[in-house]
Amino acid sequence: MEKNLDINALVDKVMERIAEEMNDSAPKEDNDHFVSEESSEEMQEEIAIRTSNIPNPKWEDGVTEIIESTPARIAVWRAGTRPLTKTMLKLRIDHAAAVDSVYGEVDDKLLDEFSFIRIETMYENNEEYLKRPDKGRIITEDGIAVLKEECIAKAQVQIVVSDGLSANAVNANLRDVYPSLLDSLEINQLKTGTPLFVKGGRVACMDHIGEILQPEVLVILIGERPGLLTSESMSAYMCYRPRKGIVESNRTVISNIHKVGTSPLEAGAHIGTILKKMLEQKTSGVKLNI
Q1: What residues are designated binding site for adenosylcob(III)alamin?
Q2: Which of 49, 58, 129, 150 has the most CB within a 10 Å radius?
Q3: 260 and 218, same structural domain?
């Protein structure tokens, strides 16, 4: 958002002044590890261009190869015993974005756009959600009534979306992954139930929903725990005939769905293919032959 842009602009100005005043051995030409984001929605749309800040490395090619192999913060160097100011400020910005994502809200207009029916879990509030994961697995009594009265029962494919630990993940990826998934299901001649959005959901809320609606397969698109690389990562958990008490090894998952991870468009298409195989093999998780 604009606030993030203002912070980045301020950081750049501060670092320019520091660079002008510095006269030591620390490199001054390439203190920027990342290309500035154009907006929070397009955060990390392009893979950041990063270089080493280590002055005169003994194995320059090796350092470059390591940097290119991972998005982790490496070869950032130091000023005395502390990180460079630019590195520390960027770390704090990314940490703030991760915290904001956990406490964020999914855009109501986005849910309206795709006609999602809304229900909630017993999570109560964000603090309780973080302290009591078990409450995010249970649908409220009002939600159960909605499922029974307004939703299609025994569908081939039940699609569920939940904010989970990152509302940003839903806001950033749903417009790409959801239509792609619907297209894939149509190509595979699979019919869907009523699209659901679960506020305050954990992965296992799919079991409670599955027990009530009894679909053949269910997929939940849920926000992952945000990290310092991105706060927009989504996972897709799939299960054949989900129900309460099902073990985790019976779930199939595609994780790391975001613009610089698994492409949302590709993920949607792949999910549809996997759901087709689940129906053909009548299983999911470790027993599924993909």
Answers
A1: 203, 224
A2: 129
A3: yes
Distances in whole angstroms, Cα of residue 136 to Cα of each of 110, 125, 184:
22, 10, 29
Of 84, 102, 120, the domain-final residue: 102
Q: What is the pTM of this model?
A: 0.75
Token output for 116: 């999602």
Do 128 and 237 fall within a single domain?
Answer: yes
User: Annotated binding site: which residue ranges?
Assistant: 203, 224
What's 137's domain CATH number?
3.40.50.11240
Give the helix ranges, DSSP H, for the chain. Answer: 2-21, 60-69, 85-102, 108-113, 126-131, 141-150, 167-187, 205-213, 264-281
Domain stops at, among 102, 130, 164? 102
Q: Is 251 helix (H, G, I), strand (E, B) or coil?
A: strand
Joined tokens for residue 110 = 């986005």
Backbone φ and ψ of 213, nearest 5°: -90, -20
Task: Assess whether 91 and 177 both reside in one domain.
Answer: no
